[in-house]
Design goal:
With 260 residues, the protein is α+β, with helices and mostly antiparallel strands. The protein has 11 helices and 6 strands. 40% of the residues lie in helices and 10% in strands. The strands form 2 sheets. A 4-stranded antiparallel β-sheet has the order 2-1-3-4, covered by helices on one side. The longest helix has 16 residues.
Length: 260
Amino acid sequence: MLASFTKKDPPPHRVKPVPIAVLRSVSATASASQCPIQQATADMIILAFFFLLRPGEYTAKAATEDSHPFLLENVQLFIGPTHRLDLFTAAPAQLQLATFATLTFAKQKNGVKDEVVGHARSGDPYLCPVLALIRRVIHLRQHNAPRTTPLATAYHLALPVAILPADITQALRIAVTIIGPSLGFLPSDVSARCLRAAGATALLCADVDTCHIQLLGRWRSDEMLRYLHLQAQPLMKDFSRKMLHGGAFALIPNQLVPSY
């Protein structure tokens, strides 16, 4: 019973959701780099943010009960709403025309098998889930990677290198250090786990309905609320004014309240 209670209690320390400035810093470093490991790390960070992924889904850890990394065969690329590209025969130039991309959650923590989640282009020339998947597909194809290769794989000197949670954490902490204390938290506050919270908080700040956030994040309960942070300044900036207006209410009396 006590063990069960400890699992239900919220963790004492939550990771902080990194703002988009951190992702831009990581992306800028990767795009200027010739290192395939650094580029793959940035791509997986982008995918984790937009698809609200857990570390066990977007890093190449060994498969466990809660770890099922996305594979090359889990990706779909589309031009328009219906024209699906063949990832293994389409020319790279054709792949780069894709406007929509999906990931198939073959196995996931919430128990929904083979659920497909997709994104259109973000409009950013680098910070985009579709472009990140295109880059991953082209890179793996260039090295004749089999369909079952994890997306979080980079080929360096013709050898496959797995992108691990520690690599993600290091890249994020370096970016937070570079940007400085204006973010409102320290490098030690972020890790590979924070990207799921970052994506959910970004959606909340953009006034996306919490039901839609829950669907995208594949949450089956109100556990989602543990990922949403009221510390995000756009959420709180107008609350005091709204509370003054919303606080002008009266309660409907019950039978014990005397009438006047």
